Amino acid sequence: MDRRLKLRHFQCFIEVAQSNHLTDAAKSLNITQAAVSKTLTELEAIVGAKLLSRDRRGVSLTSQGELFFHYASAGLASLENGYEGLTGGPNTPQIELRIGVLPTVAARFMPSAIKQFSIDNMRPVNISLQTGYNHLLLDLLHSGKTDLAIARIGSPEMMRELEFTHLYSESLVLVARSDHALFELTGRSRLAEVAKYPFLLPPKDISIRPIVEQALITLGIGMPTTVIETISNTFGRAFLRGSDAVWMISYGVVVDYLNSGVLRLLTDPIENTKGPVGLIRREDQEVDVSMRQLTSILLQQTRHLRDAVN
């Protein structure tokens, strides 16, 4: 490794990558913004690659920056983890990680992320996972009952004093069991018949419901005559397999069933329903080594989704 690389280069780069702003990173590191800029310039010169892209909205990682971030954050987290584990010995206090996740996140990639974290982590830890819809997850975060939310970006009011780091974007899809009679029809003929069947939809008080209703209008379906409101993905998947119902739901909830052929798409993913999903935390929250390690894993394991259609 190049001897010009110092620990401060890694710490500065990781802080900027996680906060997406030079000013926030400078405040967290207790140095000036000019010092942050100088350190990043030195780092890019040493590694010979452009790691960060700057615009009016802040700072984002380039493709080379994402690769470097993965290894840099994992390496720094391992170093801090090992140091704290060694210095603390058997008396090291158990770390609490309280995480709120969307159902689609819980189904799509959270199991593999937690599995990897449990392999890499060297400290006593208790991970508490809570699933829920967006408004609940943001409320829990604001109230201090969770430390991290993996959710869709909320309204400006809901996002006040919160930081958002983008993971991927996801659309709503309309699905049914693979042998449904609707698949004997095509195009507009299929859409004309869809509303005759029972629909599974999120409840009216869920923030995504207006997006669902607008999507039904866009597709020319309108509100179906029979609606079953549920937030249970387990019920939804089981109910579809044994009935003629159709379901409008986030792609990630049903992706495994689509890949296995149990369910099929009735239409293409609905483009105007696509929304960003990311890591959300409080601006004033201190990020310890375990949370930094988990964040690094989540960013790496969703990297392929950032370029995916859904």
Blueprint (SSEs and pairs):
Elements: H1 7-19, H2 22-29, H3 33-47, E1 52-55, E2 58-61, H4 63-88, E3 95-101, H5 103-108, H6 110-120, E4 125-131, H7 134-142, E5 148-152, E6 162-177, H8 187-194, E7 199-201, H9 209-218, E8 227-229, H10 233-241, E9 246-250, H11 251-260, E10 263-265, E11 270-282, H12 289-301, H13 303-306
Parallel strand pairs: 3-4, 3-5, 7-8, 7-9
Antiparallel strand pairs: 1-2, 5-11, 6-9, 6-10, 6-11
Family: Belongs to the LysR transcriptional regulatory family.
GO molecular function: DNA binding; DNA-binding transcription factor activity
Pfam family, one: LysR_substrate
Helix content: 40-55%
SS class: alpha/beta
Strand content: 15-25%
**What is the top-level CATH class of the domain at 171-274?**
Alpha Beta
Overall shape: elongated
Oligomer: single chain
CATH topology of the domain at 171-274: D-Maltodextrin-Binding Protein, domain 2
Number of strands: 11
Helix and strand succession? HHHEEHEHHEHEEHEHEHEHEEHH
For the terminal residues, how far apart are their CA atoms? 38 Å
- Which architecture of the domain at 171-274 per CATH? 3-Layer(aba) Sandwich
Q: Quick check: average pLDDT? A: 87
Radius of gyration: 22 Å
Reported for the largest beta sheet, the result is: 9 strands, mixed
**Tally of helical runs:** 13
Low-confidence regions = none
Protein name: Pca operon transcription factor PcaQ
GO biological process, one term: positive regulation of DNA-templated transcription
Organism: Natronospirillum operosum
Family: Belongs to the LysR transcriptional regulatory family.
